[in-house]
Design a protein that fits this description.
single chain; about 180 residues; alpha+beta; 7 helices; rod-shaped
Length: about 180
């Protein structure tokens, strides 16, 4: 189909002038459907003649909306889903990591407790001052802390080993 035929077809379906149809086709690289959508986005489409159902679709109420309205609605939904989807994914990931990883408390090579991280976080939120004091005091009584679970926690455990070693060195220094 040559350009003149496409312009005439677009003109009759969109009920626009020859120049508007030609400009829309050129802006859309000759694609007839894209040109129709382009004209609707610009608000150029006035009254679609019978049989020109290219630019409408039924919504849930049975009425019809134009393509620009559909584009605006779908963009809003995509933005909402992107935020809620990414936030929901973030929350799910955090909850999973808190459930499959544990804080292990040991004293003299004996495991005293293995607590899920969600419980540690909850204890810290409810009584952060008490929790911090209990951790620091227990370090000086030979308790050692480490993390275990499904995730690779080697970097965190390196830091925990340094803290445990520092507490041991301080205890040894004070007892001399």
């Amino acid at each position: 189909m040559d350009e003149l035929e496409k312009v005439e077809k677009l003109r009759s379906r969109a009920n626009v002038s020859y120049d508007e149809a030609r400009d829309a086709l050129r802006a859309c690289d000759g694609d007839l459907l894209d040109a129709m959508v382009y004209l609707e986005k610009l608000g150029k489409v006035t009254d679609v003649p019978a049989g020109g159902v290219v630019n409408t679709t039924a919504d849930t109420t049975g009425s019809y909306r134009s393509v620009p309205e559909q584009v605006i609605q779908s963009e809003k939904k995509a933005d909402e889903n992107a935020f809620s989807g990414s936030f929901g994914h973030f929350v799910k990931t955090v909850c999973t990591k808190l459930s499959v990883n544990f804080l292990k408390i040991e004293q003299d090579e004996k495991v005293l407790a293995k607590i899920p991280l969600w419980a540690v976080l909850l204890a810290f939120i409810i009584g952060h001052a008490f929790t911090l004091v209990a951790i620091v005091v227990s370090l000086f009584f030979g308790c050692r802390y480490s993390f275990c679970g499904q995730d690779n926690l080697d970097k965190v455990n390196e830091v925990m080993n340094k803290v445990n070693t520092a507490a041991d060195n301080y205890s040894d220094h004070k007892s001399e």
